[in-house]
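Input record (one chain):
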Amino acid sequence: MRIGLYGGTFDPPHLGHLEVAKTALWSGELDAVWFLPCWIHAFGKKPISFNNRVNMCQLMVKDIPKIHVCADEGEIKSTSSVVILRYLQKKNPDISFRLVLGTDNYWTMNEWNDLLEVTTIACPLWVERPGESRIPCKSYPLHNLISSTEVRDRLAVGKDVNELLHTKVEEFIVQEGLYQGEK
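The corresponding structure, as predicted from the sequence alone:
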């Protein structure tokens, strides 16, 4: 089985994230995609709770075949990609992993810790967002660009977000009172 690991903060998960996962799946190079919410942001940002982000991801992909949520970073509690990948590889020895990455990451790969081991365990599958520089390897284009920052900003001032969020995610945010007045 070939699984694409789509890691991110997902604060909140939005329809742009879903499009990335679908694009990776539609590439024909994967059998399924797993959303992999990060436990703690590697660069010190303070997202809402891990459990809330996992719950929202699960609500968003609940009825979508071949797209799932992996909450294992909550068990691992590490920001290290290689530690997470080693853990997943050991736990799932029959799975071949690929990292689902935006092409913007291509230009900073030389800054990654353990680059060779990370890309050996999970070779990147590149997704190209609109307006990004072309990379010198195969990538799959997206047609939609949404940012979590835009979603949070709109929520903070009570603006409409229904074209940016899955209905169940928006309902969860309202029910839990998330992102209200956080601007």
